[in-house]
Write a structure and sequence with these properties.
heterodimer; A: 452 residues; mainly alpha; two-stranded antiparallel sheet; 19 helices; 1% strand; B: 211 residues; 8 helices; 78% helix
């Protein structure tokens, strides 16, 4: 086992342990250093050969996931250094926040790096354990209730995926991802295991009908936590589904995923239209994007490249959106869309970045999400008749209008208040994320090459 | 072996039905503990039949963590908050919940028969499936967070039983990882449940969780 491949995991774990030291500001400094180092390691890993041994399995898909996690993780850590002071009565000391954040990143790196589907499950369940208390940082009743719903719904869903692992093992005699991907013969239990995996991991990915925890948690978690949840936690759960669909060459399993993805987009887009809370609006937008990604996963081939373009671009744009929601909340002290007015006048940097982000997360050109969705839709057209495709596009349009109308209303409405933009880091980090979201389009050929 | 599994499985089903009509949380926790010990006895037996030291380790882990540590942890939490010891207003009446439990057991059997029986080839595999649904029903039918947590762990125990009997060769690292994760979930849940009780309640707070 080459040591370089485990460095992102090691860095985040070491970062977590060092956060226990009682030195002023040390937890912030060490978390920034360690998270930046994970970006460096993940870039190096991207250019190294694929690896498959007893513990690790890193192909192009894993490498891209690791890079995306490391960037969003770093941005989250940097943004947290300026955001945490706006939480009046945090649940615990700052060093515990960073300890959990680093452990959370570790569990995500672990989930996408290991060569055993059972250990992928362990890693994804560990993300629940490490992230639950982060949701409740604001320490009020609704955030605690949201945390409880998160634990109980997601853990119950993961019991289903545990059983799916058992069935997959029963069908194939192995849980090694590398072996599963090269397997030709399997028993009829495999499709059943595959469908249960889609439901189980889909719970964590916010897929209908097990999505109900998602808007509560994204709506109530502190901005940086919502950002990392939306940006990379949900795609990590989708990663498990990608693997399962890759080694389950059964048409009806893929159709099952396609139907769930379709329903997820429809439900999320419909609910976006009636939202009055901007964080919940962004949460449903995440759900809509995960639904699109699931459709792409079910289609495979060229659509899978679209899925990764979508996931990467969405990760940057949505984390930026949630960072900006933190800026809005810390200044306006409300989550209601109607009560946030004149952002363009009062917080110009936040306003214009948010405007671009709203376009990015709803798939407008030139953002990567647009190209990702187009790739998925083109493949969908070759599989389904045009009526179904138009229906899907119609709901994507509904999501687009709902999001941009509501965000536009917050930004361009009149307000007589004073100018109140946040500190430089609080506005700079979302801008960088937004730029990344556009820059993804220049890497589409590279992403395609790595995934193939 | 098959008879022993049937005995264990039916005991588990009976214990869960007892949980459905019980309103005292401490008794439900103790019942869960008994259920976990019964599963560990089954795993002990399995380890001797199969001469597998890994299954033996799993049996010890089950007894220590699911049977002893987790119930003790929850009971200690409960002792600090006697108000939570009895669920005053369950979401549905006792008689109704028992009827639904029986319907769930029949549904689970039919579902298993239609989907898995042909491939697994063991009729008694329907028992863990029924237990999973019973656990889910315990979560849905109760408002008390401790009972919901027990419901989740009943689902976990059922999955464990399913694996232990039907697919005992599953890699040990996976099953051990499951146990470790369970500890984490219970610890975090314990903290959240304490916070739920101690946080000041504001009537407009839950408006933020609508829609």
């Amino acid at each position: 086992m080459s040591i370089i491949y485990i460095l992102p995991m090691a860095a985040s774990l070491i970062g977590a342990l060092l956060c226990l030291a009682r030195i002023e500001k040390f937890e912030e400094i060490i978390s920034v250093i360690m998270s930046v180092s994970t970006i460096i390691f993940s870039i190096v890993i991207l250019f190294l050969p694929d690896v498959s041994d007893a513990f690790l399995f890193l192909d192009g898909i894993s490498k891209i996931m690791i890079l995306t996690i490391s960037i969003v993780y770093t941005m989250t850590v940097i943004f947290s250094t300026t955001f945490l002071k706006y939480i009046d009565e945090p649940l615990f000391q700052k060093r515990f926040y960073y300890l959990l954040l680093n452990l959370f990143a570790f569990s995500m790196f672990f989930s996408v790096s290991v060569n055993n589907l059972g250990l992928v499950w362990v890693g994804i369940e560990a993300t629940t354990v490490t992230s639950a208390l982060l949701v409740a940082v604001e320490n009020d009743e609704s955030s605690i209730e949201a945390t409880w719903r998160y634990i109980i719904i997601v853990s119950s869903g993961l019991v289903i995926s545990f059983i799916s692992n058992v069935l997959i093992y029963a069908a194939t005699d192995t849980l090694d991802i590398s072996k599963l991907l090269t397997m030709n013969a399997f028993s009829a239990l495999l499709p059943l295991g595959g469908m249960m995996a889609i439901i189980g991991y889909g719970t964590k990915a916010g897929i209908f009908p097990m999505h109900t925890w998602l808007p509560d948690v994204h709506g109530k978690a502190p901005a940086p936590v919502s950002a990392i949840f939306s940006g990379v936690l949900l795609p990590v759960a989708l990663y498990a589904i990608i693997r399962v669909i890759q080694f389950t060459p059964v048409a009806y399993v893929k159709t099952f995923a396609l139907v769930l993805g379709f329903l997820t987009v429809i439900i999320a887009a419909s609910l976006m239209a009636v939202q009055t809370n901007y964080k919940r609006l962004f949460a449903y937008s995440t759900m809509e994007n995960m639904g699109m990604a699931l459709i792409g996963i079910s289609l495979g081939g060229y659509a899978l490249i679209g899925v990764f373009v979508l996931i990467i671009s969405h990760a940057f744009a949505k984390s930026s959106t949630f960072f900006l929601s933190g800026n809005l909340l810390s200044r306006y002290k409300t989550l209601k869309i109607d009560d946030v007015k004149g952002v363009a006048k009062r917080m110009p940097s936040t306003a214009y970045t948010l405007l671009f982000d709203a376009m990015a997360i709803t798939g407008m050109p030139p953002f990567g999400t647009f190209f990702g969705e187009i790739m998925i839709i083109l493949v969908l057209l070759s599989v389904l008749n045009i009526g179904w495709t138009l229906l899907l596009v119609g709901f994507l349009a509904l999501a687009f209008i709902s999001m941009n109308f509501k965000v536009g209303k917050m930004i361009f409405s009149d307000s007589e208040g004073e100018k109140m933009d946040r500190k430089r880091i609080g506005t700079l980090v979302p801008i960088i994320d937004t730029v990344f979201s556009v820059a993804v389009i220049f890497f589409i050929p590279f992403i395609s090459k790595v995934i193939k | 072996m098959k008879d022993f599994f049937m005995l264990i499985g039916f005991s588990e089903v009976l214990l869960v039905i007892f949980m459905q009509w019980e309103v005292y949380v401490t008794k439900i926790v103790k019942t869960f503990s008994i259920g976990s010990y019964i599963i560990s006895i089954f795993l002990f037996y399995l380890s001797f039949v199969q001469h597998s030291y890994l299954v033996l380790i799993l049996a010890i882990l089950t007894a220590a963590i699911r049977g002893f540590f987790i119930p003790t942890f929850i009971l200690r939490r409960l002792s600090k908050d006697p108000r939570r010891e009895r669920e005053s207003k369950p979401a549905m009446g006792t008689a109704f919940s028992i009827i639904i439990s029986l319907v769930i057991a029949i549904f689970a059997y039919v579902l298993y028969d239609v989907t898995m029986l042909n491939f697994v080839g063991v009729l008694s595999g329907a028992i863990p499936v029924a237990l999973i649904f019973q656990g889910a029903f315990l979560i849905i039918s109760r408002k008390n967070a401790f009972i919901q947590l027990i419901g989740y762990m009943v689902m976990e125990n059922a999955a464990f039983l399913f694996t232990g009997y039907l697919f005992p060769d599953l890699p040990f690292s996976v099953e051990a990882g499951t146990v470790l994760d369970l500890i984490g979930v219970v610890m975090i849940s314990g903290i959240i449940m304490r916070m739920r009780e101690s946080t000041p309640k504001k009537s407009d707070d839950f408006d933020e969780l609508r829609g």
